[in-house]
Amino acid sequence: MSRFALIALSLTLLPAAARADGDAALGKTLFSRCAGCHTVTAQNKVGPGLAGVFGRRAASVAGFRYSKALSATDIVWDDATLEQFLAAPAKMVPGTSMAVSVPKSEDRTNLIAYLKTLGAGVTP
Ligand code: HEC
């Protein structure tokens, strides 16, 4: 392969690699879809506060009334579980009270990148 072809190839692959990591700034903008129910602090609204949600066990924010369905799982929120939950919450956790889904894969990746920036675990 010529050097030119190699450069052209790496330029084509670059945007895909960037997407795989997710763009937290875009995710923050997308979070407007979530902010009606979720804060990014420890404060609960219609949904639990999402500070520190990445790496946390599901349904573990004190003082929030989770559905029995989500409480009964042993999910830990990471890239794979958040991806699955946001794509179709009720499919992953039948009976969950979270009814909103994020149909576009790219949006999910960016949202997850943003959720990762929300700091360490909640101190209730
Ligand atoms: C209409 C209100 C509503 C909206 C909008 C909403 N959620 Fe939720 N969310 C909830 C509720 C209620 C729960 C608790 C689910 C349960 O107990 O089964 C929840 C739970 C979650 C959880 C699990 C939290 C935990 O502590 O285990 C995550 C993660 C989450 N939502 C992310 C999001 C994201 C990201 C968005 C935006 C795309 C979003 N939610 C939009 C209501 C909402």
The count of helical stretches stands at 6
For the record, the CATH architecture stands as Orthogonal Bundle
Head-to-tail CA distance between termini: 58 Å
Residue-averaged pLDDT:
87
CATH superfamily membership? Cytochrome c-like domain
List low-confidence stretches. 15-19
Q: For the report, how would you describe the main beta sheet? A: none
Using the CA coordinates, give the radius of gyration: 17 Å
Class in CATH? Mainly Alpha
- Compressed to H and E, one letter per element, the order equals HHHHHH
Helix content percent band = 40-55%
**Overall shape:** globular
Instruction: Count every beta strand, where a strand is a DSSP E run of 2 or more residues.
Output: 0
- Total domain units: 1
Structural class: mainly alpha
Beta-strand content? under 5%
Chemical compounds bound to the protein = heme C
CATH topology: Cytochrome Bc1 Complex, Chain D, domain 2
Quick rundown:
The chain is mainly α and 124 residues long. 44% of the residues lie in helices and 0% in strands. Residues 15-19 have low confidence and may be disordered.
Question: Can you put this structure into words, describing what you see?
Answer:
The radius of gyration is 17 Å and the shape is globular. Helix content is 44%, strand content 0%. 24% of the residues are buried. It has a single domain (22-116), classed as Cytochrome c-like domain (Cytochrome Bc1 Complex, Chain D, domain 2). By secondary structure, it is an all-alpha fold. The protein is built from 6 helices and no strands. Heme C (HEC) is lined by residues 33-34, 36-38, 46-48, 53, 58-59, 61, 66-67, 69-70, 77, 86, 96-100, 102, 111. Heme C binds at residues 33-34, 36-38, 46-48, 53, 58-59, 61, 66-67, 69-70, 77, 86, 96-100, 102, 111.
